[in-house]
Each structure stands twice: as structure tokens, then as C-alpha cells.
């Protein structure tokens, strides 16, 4: 059969959330055999996300995991890693609900604000251990593995040379079987934001020689680390108080 892509997306409420999720949903609709694990950073699942998933017409799991309040960033401050509790919830969901003997597939961390060329999903779909590729709009214009004779031998990046894997969450996928071979592999809040990719890859016991370069030997950019600007709205409505639209 065709390997399934388990796309894990942490998401949280802000004015732009529905726009971001509409865009990613409609990208995913173009990808066959993709299973969306959407994890809300909230105490309860919201009707906004529930409705969006119902209308999206792709297979999904709707989960929630609240970021512990002591690890929640205040706006403008990015001290704590984001998406940790949500991605861990999704990894545990896979371990509990997917039968590794009957399932071929890959896991990909698809943040709700990035921009995806649908071709990246066909690049990652056939992954033996871990696939890697460049990501646009990071570092100095892009970050990328360095490939020599078909093997990953180093990295192009700007910050954080101490990292075992100086790469972004959007730049790799791994075979779902690794989750079952390494039951304890998980993200954590004690490591800094830029270390999260290394934490999970080390938890999965990945080494450089395991890495499979994709996107034409890492020469093509098929995913971008886009970030949506915070929307500044008028302070007072100018429309009649009885005029409303359905925001969910
Ligand atoms: N996120 C979350 N809770 C938060 C902040 C972020 O669930 O309090 C999610 C967000 O929706 C995204 C992922 O975590 O899918 C990474 O966050 P963000 O895109 O803000 O990080 P950046 O790209 O700026 O590093
Ligand atoms: Mn982002």
C-alpha cells in the first residue's frame, strides 16, 4: 500500500488561526493518504477547530493539550519552546492508535503557519529512516543540508552551531516505525526552542548516516518558514451593534 503521512500540527487561538487552518487544510486536501493530527493548545477542544475539521474532508484526529501555564510565552517573548505538549500528545496518539504491524508511513511536524508545496509530501512519503530537505525563509534566506555524493555531510544555517541537528521542524520527516522502537522519544520544555529538533531526532537514535536527502539532493525549496504578522484591528466597531458574522 501507499505509506500514510501523519501530519502533526499544533495550533492555538489567535485572530489569524482560522485563516491559517483554512490554508493548511486546503493544502492537505491535495495530498492523498495524509492523516492530519491537529492538536489544540487549549484546555478543551473548540468549536472553531471542530467545525473546520468537519468541513476539511480529510481524515483527521482532533486532540488538545494545554501548554503548562508556566511554559506559555507572553506575546513578544519567545523564551519557551512552542508546540511541545501538543506534538507529544500527537506522538502518544500514534503509539496508542496506530498498529505498527499493519501501517507503513511517515511522521511530519507541519506547523499551522508554514507554506507547503504539495510536492514535499511525495518527497517525504517514501522514507526508510529520516528524510531531510531545505527550508526557505530561515537563516540567510534558507537553511539546507549539504549533500555530497547522495549523503548528508553537513548543514547550511546561521544560528546555533552547538546543535547536533541544526535544522528546523519543517525540514525532516521520519518513518512511523521509529516511534514504536523508541517509546520514550519526546519533546521537552527543559531544552531551548532551537534544540527541539535535535531532542526528538536523538530520542529516535538518528545519526547523520541515516539521513536521506530529498528535494533533488536538497537543491529545491518546497517548504517555507512563513510567519503571519499579528493583526492590528480598529479599537471600536463602526458597524451597528446588531450586525454580526459567524467567526467560527
Ligand atoms: N503554537 C501553539 N501554542 C503557542 C504557540 C504556538 O500551539 O502558544 C503552535 C503554532 O500554532 C505552530 C507551532 O506551535 O503550529 C510553532 O509555533 P510558531 O509558528 O509560533 O513558532 P515559530 O515558527 O515562530 O518558531
Ligand atoms: Mn511558525
Count all strands and give the number.
Answer: 12
**Strand and helix order:** EHEHEHEEHEEEEEHHEHE
Bound molecules: uridine-5'-diphosphate, manganese (II) ion
Unreliable stretches? none
Query: Which value, in Å, is the CA radius of gyration?
Result: 18 Å
Order of strands, main sheet, comes to 3-2-1-4-10-6-11
The assigned structural class equals alpha/beta
Q: What level of helicity do the residues show?
A: 10-25%
The coarse overall form would be: globular
Mean pLDDT: 97
Distance between the termini: 37 Å
Question: What is the count of helical runs?
Answer: 7
The biggest beta sheet is recorded as:
7 strands, mixed
Beta strand %: 15-25%
Description of the molecule:
The chain is of the alpha/beta class and 248 residues long. Helix content is 24%, strand content 23%. The chain has 7 helices and 12 strands. The strands form 3 sheets. The chain has a 7-stranded mixed β-sheet with strand order 3-2-1-4-10-6-11, sandwiched between helices. A 3-stranded antiparallel β-sheet has the order 7-8-9, with no helix packed on it. α1 (17-28) links the parallel β1 and β2. The longest helix has 14 residues, at 84-97. The radius of gyration is 18 Å and the shape is globular. The mean pLDDT is 97. Uridine-5'-diphosphate (UDP) binds next to β1.
Describe the protein's topology.
Elements: E1 4-11, H1 17-28, E2 34-40, H2 47-56, E3 60-64, H3 84-97, E4 105-109, E5 115-116, H4 119-125, E6 130-132, E7 135-140, E8 142-148, E9 151-156, E10 172-175, H5 177-181, H6 196-203, E11 211-213, H7 215-218, E12 223-224
Parallel strand pairs: 1-2, 1-4, 2-3, 6-11
Antiparallel strand pairs: 4-10, 5-12, 6-10, 7-8, 8-9
Helix pairs in contact: 1-2
